[in-house]
Amino acid sequence: MTFPTASDTHDRTVPPIGEEEPDGGVSRFGVDGTGVTTDEDNTAIAFDKQANLVRTTRIVVGLDGSTSSLAALRKAVTLAAGSHSAVQGVVAWQIPNGYGGYNFTDWSPETDALQIMNTTVEDAFEGTAPEWFTPVVRQGNAAAVLIELSKGAEMLVVGSRGHGGFAGLLLGSVSTACAEHAHCPVLVMHDDDA
């Protein structure tokens, strides 16, 4: 799967929004900006050609390149198989405040976010993602982006960056915010859940 470069846009659904295919199936367009076709109640509609069925719900999964976020994506895919849901993988990025007046000139957080998406998709799907998976790379605070995209979703799955022992029982700031404010049930995966 080839993703756009960082210079294309700052808020995008990857791959680009598409149109109806010759066989009548709908491919990758959306009225809610997520790349998944939805009705007025934000119910996802994605056609799964391999299983020959319409996936009428959506599971959102937060991705950040960590082991726990890869576990979250794998869990979301497992849950999607049983519920015939589409999966929407989300990587959020933002430009950090300058530290001591030092500005980053050769580094792009959006390019890093696109690379995280590429690597995670390759690892989770062993190459090519299925048609019912929609990768989204969006600028903004990770918790805020995931909470917004949880509207109308069946579930939000996120990783937690616990470090084992007592610290491993604690949630990270993004997973805590999502658990408190998401518009759907939230499942938090730890590194050892992989």
Q: How does this model look, in words?
A:
The protein is α/β, with parallel strands linked by helices and 194 residues long. The chain has a domain at 57-189: Rossmann fold, CATH 3.40.50. 26% of the residues lie in helices and 23% in strands. It has helices spanning 67-83, 109-125, 142-149, 173-181, and strands spanning 11-13, 37-38, 44-48, 53-55, 57-62, 85-93, 133-139, 155-159, 186-189. The strands form two sheets. The chain has a six-stranded mixed beta sheet with strand order 1-7-6-5-8-9, with helices on both faces. The protein has a three-stranded antiparallel beta sheet with strand order 2-3-4, with no helix packed on it. Helix 1 (67-83) links the parallel strand 5 (57-62) and strand 6. It is globular, with a radius of gyration of 17 Å. The two termini are 24 Å apart. Residues 1-29 are annotated as: Disordered. Belongs to the universal stress protein A family. Residues 57-189 form the UspA domain. This is UspA domain-containing protein.
